[in-house]
Amino acid sequence: MPRTASALALFASLALTQLAGPAAAQDWTKSKWGPNDEIGAANYITPELVMKAAQLVKVGKTYHLGIETNSKTPAFPPRSFKITIVQPGQAGIPGLGPNKTTYNDDIIDGWVGIGSQLDGLGHLGVEYVYYNGNKGADFADATGLKKLGIEKVPPLVARGVLLDMAAHLGTDVVKEGTAFNTKEIEDVAKKQGVEIRQGDIVLFHTGWVSLIGKDDKRYGAAEPGLGVEGAKYLAGKGVVAVGADTWGLEVLPFETKTVFEVHQILLAMNGIYILENMNTAALAADKGYEFLFVLGAPRITGAVQAIINPIAIR
Amino acid sequence: MPRTASALALFASLALTQLAGPAAAQDWTKSKWGPNDEIGAANYITPELVMKAAQLVKVGKTYHLGIETNSKTPAFPPRSFKITIVQPGQAGIPGLGPNKTTYNDDIIDGWVGIGSQLDGLGHLGVEYVYYNGNKGADFADATGLKKLGIEKVPPLVARGVLLDMAAHLGTDVVKEGTAFNTKEIEDVAKKQGVEIRQGDIVLFHTGWVSLIGKDDKRYGAAEPGLGVEGAKYLAGKGVVAVGADTWGLEVLPFETKTVFEVHQILLAMNGIYILENMNTAALAADKGYEFLFVLGAPRITGAVQAIINPIAIR
Amino acid sequence: MPRTASALALFASLALTQLAGPAAAQDWTKSKWGPNDEIGAANYITPELVMKAAQLVKVGKTYHLGIETNSKTPAFPPRSFKITIVQPGQAGIPGLGPNKTTYNDDIIDGWVGIGSQLDGLGHLGVEYVYYNGNKGADFADATGLKKLGIEKVPPLVARGVLLDMAAHLGTDVVKEGTAFNTKEIEDVAKKQGVEIRQGDIVLFHTGWVSLIGKDDKRYGAAEPGLGVEGAKYLAGKGVVAVGADTWGLEVLPFETKTVFEVHQILLAMNGIYILENMNTAALAADKGYEFLFVLGAPRITGAVQAIINPIAIR
Amino acid sequence: MPRTASALALFASLALTQLAGPAAAQDWTKSKWGPNDEIGAANYITPELVMKAAQLVKVGKTYHLGIETNSKTPAFPPRSFKITIVQPGQAGIPGLGPNKTTYNDDIIDGWVGIGSQLDGLGHLGVEYVYYNGNKGADFADATGLKKLGIEKVPPLVARGVLLDMAAHLGTDVVKEGTAFNTKEIEDVAKKQGVEIRQGDIVLFHTGWVSLIGKDDKRYGAAEPGLGVEGAKYLAGKGVVAVGADTWGLEVLPFETKTVFEVHQILLAMNGIYILENMNTAALAADKGYEFLFVLGAPRITGAVQAIINPIAIR
Fold first, then answer.
1. What secondary structure, in 3-state letters, does C136-163 show?
2. Which of chain C's residues have a Cβ under 8 Å away from the Cβ of A92?
3. Nearest in space to B127 (alpha carbons), one of D95, A94, A91
């Protein structure tokens, strides 16, 4: 037991380091999974955990965790999105062959960072240094990432844990600027009777995504979300990914002068994936706090992010 | 028992109708699920079937069923695909904020029909009439399908059945033009000890997709695949979707003068989804003939098809 | 002089044919310039006419005839337009080389038919038959027109004639639905003291384009413009191109039940180019009724139309 | 005559300054045309010069100075270009209206920096400082340049001067790495009997662009072109623009360790436009050393560069 105030302070900071996990202590540019690792916390997924997660399926109900993406989806400039439907080669003809086959084809043109998102480990870093010490100048080629691309992400199959922050705070839509840190996370987990374990994928329900189409301006200006301390806490738990029904997961306005520090802590420093604009309302309404989470992100070579629609099954 | 030759012929044709299912008998423009239905055979998915499928997870192994999509993926003209990586607003700066946040963003420009595909029910029809009698002129708006869009497809969670045609035919790559009809399907199912049931998703393994990067010309010129009779057979079984590790599922050269008739039978006439370029090799190597199949296609509003990465879990 | 009523009728119809030009009489699918011709009325441009046009430069004043094109330019669905500025490879660096070169690059994504336009001879036809009998199915390949592409258009250098319809009608903006036919054209030409001759490029000034940014809805819903009879009249004069400061040149609402018939008469039947959204206001203010017109449309292979900025010099 | 060594040195440096023009002496970030100027050397164009240029039209011959741009045009990664032809809304119909109007429409997707180019004054700078001291961070918005955009460029109408370097060097294609500096420029001008004057647009003919389609690799790896000293010389002459039938105008390999220094001297330091991939062969064959040069670059708001087709008339 420490005798002096300063010793006590030192002890306290060491204790905090224990709780906060690697993000505060080691050289984050060196992944615990070795210098060639590109998949980060997906390494926590094991066959045992997959089997256990499948056993969470008890009522056979499925949920889209993806929202719709289209040209009206709020997006940050200069991002935009557009789809065009065409019928190549069919102008004026009844169709191909005696069976008159006709078809519609589609062309997409848009920034990937719109709608429900998987942020890959090459998305955000610290002064151009990304997960596992990879430097942007080395891997972020204009025609596609040479490392950390979305095609590298293994199937994300895990126990999903929903933390219903809205219910906890007695509201439909949690206020912008509300930060979720250790205390909030632990309170909700306890109330809901769930633990957060290594290999989990944790999703926050805040109600925020319901603002789309009603108040796009408010939706995009700020959000409730994960705070810096909460990010370190979850990293210490060894989660695979963290998501929310918000555009950016982390609380805005930011808690301090730092900008997107939670993204840095999760993606760059801990190789933990981020899931944005998750459609958590239906799960929350069903009190589906534990479920089988399955995501196969479209394997576009060299992509930084992906437009996704993970499935929850319980 | 029929006495005469003509009676025998009549009996035989009636029997065939029974086997072949609705495709040969009713007015296909009227869906059995009613005039407003947009999801077709996905209606076969029930909570019971989902729970049973989850119980197929016995070893905890997961598989990407998606191949990579990029500018080199073989595609039919005029289709093309491109991704561009940018760093908006970071020219010449160390990063945003005191924590120097930097990030990569991506822009996609390309036809959706490249790589691993989900063909939606609005993709292909007969003389501009699509699933459930929907007319192209009514729903295929240039800015997005007004009906049958990919965003309407529910989570495709089902018992997956793999039919390893390559192993059955004693080859690594089944020859182009080899048709899979009732006899072939039943032989393989029997040999593998699996049944095909209502609500299943059936995938053929042929080895064809392994030609990508080795012989793109051969890969795209033809393929082994489902024949017209086999399509009707599977439709009669009430499957939700049929796929293969080929670019187009159905056998090419076509069996007769008709063009993409299997697509018409599955998509338009029976509301059965098609999965193309499925990465079945690993499942086949593990003899994973039954598995939990999970697909959340990215919910791009009004899309005709989707670039997908379904996950198989066993 | 004809003696009988029927002879009189015959005479009248022949007379009308003379006035109306080829559009009413011959088989329009056979160009007067032969079966292989792809440039239509540009054939009227001769060195003599070019020299005469250059001699019209008397005060040395130049004019942009192009308006700006951007994402806010009114356009007909599904058309859209977007430009993105990027700084490839410069994230975090002071520049390339000891002299620290840095640069901006741009990417365009959009429909060509937005802003100031040159309609090529492959743009519009009659039941999929285009200029000189070319069938869409033969030349309109999805990756670019195989004939009649914009890259085939020779330099359009000619005597430009401005007809100030707005001044003639005593208004700033001519009302939508106002048709310019032979009488109107001849009255204005006479008042302005200009002739319309073979090889000319004729532009109408109506004031309509000034509605952009003020009343986009009105701007796009209709317009004053060339009528069917007026189109035949100008075709009979042997003009190279006709344009206006409107989005579509021809009067809307249409004069009859026909749809874009003026486009058919000019482009398909006579190989006469159409110029849309011409910025004629400054020329009109200066009473620049005759000028040297110069257009080099960007030579994008296989393009149907081009975004242009012709220059008037007087 | 200077008496001392230091005086001699001072004299020599002043003399060099005279020869080299402003680029070596003043603060280049302050344009001679004032702090708000965005058009640089286009300010040299006057009505008198326009009239004189028009008088150069003596035989009535016109020339495309633009080459074709398409998906096969050599381009530097990640640049790419694509056009798609569509027939919106016409699947299965004979056409619109009783007159059966049908039409082709086109969509462009591509980097602007491909094919014949106008480099605007916002294209290249020194450590993110561009023409007239404009800082990239201030004006280079991702949705379009806020200053120095192509839409600001006035009609470029001037006396064009062709310097046939290939003929001068007795070759069809001038070798890569051959630098054109003051001596070379003056020798050719003298041999051809032309002067270079303020307000001119100077084009070099080297034969290099004829390599496209024959040896794309060689074409893109290097080029003959303007050297640093030559650039300063031309700047001192007060030219409006300099171009060549090469992809980058300046000599490659570079003369020293500096990278694209000629671009910096012309664009950033002197507001002189650069024209790339000019199709000079026909003019050279006709010995068209003086001509009327006319360029209306498509006025895409905020563009950095433009795909162009200037017209030469003589």
1. HHHHEECCEECCCCHHHCCCEEEEEEEE
2. 127-128, 136-137
3. A94
| Chain C touching partners, 3 or more CB pairs below 8 A | A, B, D
Whether residue C127 and residue A92 make contact (CB cut-off 8 A), yes or no, is: yes
Q: Is the CB of D91 less than 8 angstroms away from the CB of A102?
A: yes
CA–CA distances in Å: residue B111 to residues C107, C264, D82: 18, 32, 12
| Contacting residues of B for C94, CB less than 8 Å apart | 92
pLDDT at C122 over 50: yes
Residue C272 in tokens: 């006469």
Judged by a CB distance cut-off of 8 A, whether residue D107 touches chain A is yes
Indicate yes or no: CB of D91 within 8 angstroms of CB of A84: no
Return residues 40-69 of D near C (CB < 8 Å): 45-51, 54-55, 57-69
Provide the Cα torsion B69, B73, B76, B80; round to 10°: 70
Taking only the tens place, the pLDDT of each residue in A235-288 is 999 999 999 999 999 999 999 999 999 999 999 999 999 999 999 999 999 999
A86-95, B255-264, B299-308, range with the lowest pLDDT: A86-95
- Give the strand pairing for C101-103 and D81-86: unpaired
CB pairs under 8 A between A and D: 38
Give me the pLDDT at residue B170, please: 97
Name the pTM for this structure.
Answer: 0.87
Residue A282: phi, psi to the nearest 5?
-65, -40
Question: What would the mean pLDDT of A303-313 be, rounded to a whole number?
Answer: 98
From the list D110, D264, D305, which residue is nearest C99 (CB)? D264
Is there a cis peptide before residue B78, judged by omega within 30 degrees of 0? yes
Q: What is the pLDDT of residues B153-202, one digit of tens each?
A: 999 999 999 999 999 999 999 999 999 999 999 999 999 999 999 999 99
Digit-coded pLDDT (tens) for C263-293: 999 999 999 999 999 999 999 999 999 999 9
Residue of C82, C86, C143 to mutate, testing the B interface (most B Cβ within 10 Å of its Cβ) = C86
What secondary structure letter does DSSP report for B266?
I
For residue B77, the model assigns a pLDDT of: 76
Report CA D232 to chain centroid distance, whole Å.
Answer: 15
Handedness of CA D140, D143, D146, D149 (dihedral sign): positive
- Distance from A117 to chain B by nearest Cα, in Å? 10
As a whole number of angstroms, the distance between CA B105 and CA A113 comes to: 7
Distance of CA D76 to the CA centre of its chain: 18
- Give me the residue from D77, D91, D141 closest to A91, CB to CB: D91
SS (H, E, C) chain A: CCCCHHHHHHHHHHHHHHHHCHHHHCCCCCCCCCCCCCCHHHHHCCHHHHHHHHCCCCCCCEEECCCCECCCCCCCCCCCEEEEEECCCCECCCCECCCCEEECEEEEEEECCCCCEEECCCCEEECCECHHHCEHHHHEECCEECCCCHHHCCCEEEEEEEEEHHHHCCCCCCCCCCEECHHHHHHHHHHHCCCCCCCCEEEEECCHHHHCCCCHHHHHHCECEECHHHHHHHHHHCCCEEEECCCCCECECCCCCCCCHHHHHHHHHHCCEEEECCCCHHHHHCCCCEEEEEECCCCECCCCEEECCCEEEC
Three-state DSSP class for residue B34 = coil
Structure tokens that stand for D111 in this block: 């980097």
The model's confidence at residue B3, banded by pLDDT at 50, 70 and 90, is: very low
A123 touches chain B (CB under 8 A): yes
In the predicted structure, residue B19 carries a pLDDT above the cut 50: no
Contact across the interface for C102 and B84, Cβ inside 8 Å: no
Instruction: Report CA B73 to chain centroid distance, whole Å.
Output: 18
Q: How many CB atoms lie within 10 A of CB B5?
A: 8
| Residue B178 tokens, joined | 């080899």
